[in-house]
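Researcher: I've been going back and forth with a colleague about how Palmitoyltransferase might be arranged in three dimensions. Neither of us has a model we trust, so I'd like an independent prediction. The organism is Araneus ventricosus, in case that matters for your notes. Sequence below.
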Amino acid sequence: MARRLDCSRRNSRTVQRQASVLNPPELGADTNNRCCWNRLWFVQDICGIICAVLTWLLVLYAEYVVVFVILLPSPYLYYSAVNFVIFQTLAFLAITSHLRTMFSDPGAVPRGNATKETIQQMGLCDGQVVYKCPKCCCIKPDRAHHCSVCQRCIKKMDHHCPWVNNCVGEKNQKYFVLFTFYIAVISSHAFFLAISHFIMCVNSDWNKCSSKSPPATVILLILLIFEALLFAIFTCVMFGTQVQAIWNDETGIEQLKKESVRWQKRSPWRSLRSVFGRFSLVWFSPFTGPSLNLNKLDGYLHAV
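Model: Here is an independent structure prediction for Palmitoyltransferase. You can compare it with whatever you and your colleague have in mind.
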């Protein structure tokens, strides 16, 4: 017992030094998957970049049809104004959430830090070992998985999403959940507006219901209805699976692989707070993230 207490005190005295070794603060120490003079995280994957650009184009198409085909030609001023403000606000939050997810470090472990000197500096006690990733040569924390696209080990990796060209992990899961939420909401809103406008055009024999010709209006509305319905279903399912995983304190990979629980599970409320922070309106803001304890090293040590 005395030996364990002594080891605990020794580890607590060196926690800051160990954290600086495992998580070097200088950006220049690891330039992989970074852009803009190492200021932003960016995965250089052509498939993910195409999917991300396609996401922006689909949102822009919905913007064009909703604004210039549905709202501006509408004779109801207040109806158009209210729906314009709602749609633009939700679209702005959705795009911001997407960008934050895409350009945020998901919790990548520094590459090549599994050196003999680093392991010695961690001051391991008897019966404690660390795991080394053979692919990126890093000290692999518990619940971390290696992503073949990012070529890094990601802490609490949920999955790699090509639509955001990034992994969803410990540091950016909130932004991804908000992205799926806001896309689901604006898709449902666009679907409602398109159906309502289509019915209005049919009842008015296509007179003054759009600045476009009737065939063009029909094609634009049908494409918007199809897009909105498809993405509303897809993002609602994704949002539900993300919330369920957070509620159960599991990641998508852990659920898929049915991994045995080696960590101490948190309560659903504490698990939600670990992703979104303290409950307030900032839960719905993509401009703030939860404060993570980056100096905590428990996930790196394993007792055997």
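Researcher: What would you highlight for our discussion?
Model: I'd start with this: Residues 39-302 form one domain. After that, consider the following. The chain has one domain: 39-302.
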